[in-house]
Amino acid sequence: MKECRFYHKVDGEGEYASNTVRCELCPHCCVILEGKHGKCGSRWNFNGKLYSVVYGKPCALADDPVEKKPLNEFHPGTRCLSLSCTGCNFRCLNCQNHDISQVLPSAVDFYELSPSDIVDIAVKHHLPGIAYTYTEPLTYYEYIYDIAKEAHSRGLWNILVSAGYINPEPLREIVSLIDAANIDLKAFSEDVYQKQCGGHLQPVLDTLLTMKKAGVHLEITNLLIPGANDSESMIRDMCSWLRDNGFADCPLHFSSFFPQYKMQDSVPTPTETLFTARRIAQEEGMRKIYLGNI
Question: CA 171 to CA 217: how far, in whole Å?
């Protein structure tokens, strides 16, 4: 475990019990009682201090091509060490990695690897970058921060694959360590974010703007779910916002949905929907469009 950053004690404030803390890592700003955890499941309150209980405990390690992240225009043809810890601050009904993202750390086997160990593995296997992926890496912020610093000191890239749901201050502190990111823009709809994911749209848009300003290589994924976020008007609104905010040359990945998790009764995305999305994106001025999961 490691004590978290970005939290404060709120005991003595109104109805809050002794040793209660408020996590300030993401927009949920969870109020966490002693012995309990936040929505992500990986940040726990012990004796009035907030700890990341997954620090140094990755549950998944893999050697992946960067295109799998997906990053099609960041050192294509190279590979990276992908890692993940349990936990996520969203509750997406269609989560494809729900067996590690929607469970508590105690439910999953894990390795014990320090930040230096992770970088050593990447160097040993001649992998030029490390990707924080599969679940929501920003929920194990302290671990990726320490790995990323070590990786940069040894000449490795850092790749973030994230839903981008983080508060401004912690994002500003880590963004200089991130070389490339793929941000999953779930939908261009506050209603869909609330019902489908358990979050809000605007913080994700703010993350995109902050990363762009910081010079991070950005690519965006929009998973098109039939009947949820695939209307032509929603796709057009998203693309026009991206264009108007300087993302016209940002690679945009439209990806097919397949029934997963709590959406087993849904239907896969018709290929024609992706072709329609590409046409709309082109009409709105997006210049780098990729279709995935076909």
Answer: 15
What tokens were used for 204?
């994700």
Name, in order, each residue with C-beta under 8 angstroms of 73's C-beta and a sequence gap of 6 or more: 217, 219, 251, 288
3-state SS class at 44: strand
- The three-state secondary structure class of 158 is strand
pTM over 0.85: yes
Nearest to 187 by CA among 241, 123, 106, 128: 241
Q: Would you state the pLDDT for residue 14?
A: 67
- Which pair of tokens denotes residue 63? 């050697």
Q: Which two tokens stand for residue 50?
A: 């907030």
What value, to the nearest 5°, has the Cα angle with vertex 192 and ends 186 and 195? Answer: 115
| 278, 253 Cβ separation under 8 angstroms | no
> What per-residue confidence (pLDDT) applies to 3?
98
Closest CA to 102 of 262, 223, 218: 262
State both tokens at 85.
């810890």
What's the CA gap between 42 and 155, in Å, rounded?
A: 29
* Residue 13 confidence (pLDDT): 63
Determine what percent of the chain falls in helix, strand and coil, rounding each to the nearest 5: 30, 20, 45
State how far Cα 169 lies from the chain centre. 16
Measured in residues, the chain has a length of 294
* Residue 209: HSE in the Cβ half-sphere, 13 Å Cα cutoff: 12
List, in sequence order, every residue forming a beta bridge with 217; answer none if it has no partner. 180
Q: Which of 201, 125, 141 is nearest to 175 (CA)?
A: 141
Contact between 51 and 99 (Cβ < 8 Å)? no
Terminal alpha carbon distance of the chain: 41
Residue 181 and residue 162: Cα distance in Å, rounded? 7
Low-confidence ranges of the chain (pLDDT < 70): 12-14
Contacts of residue 213, Cβ cutoff 8 Å, sequence gap at least 6: none
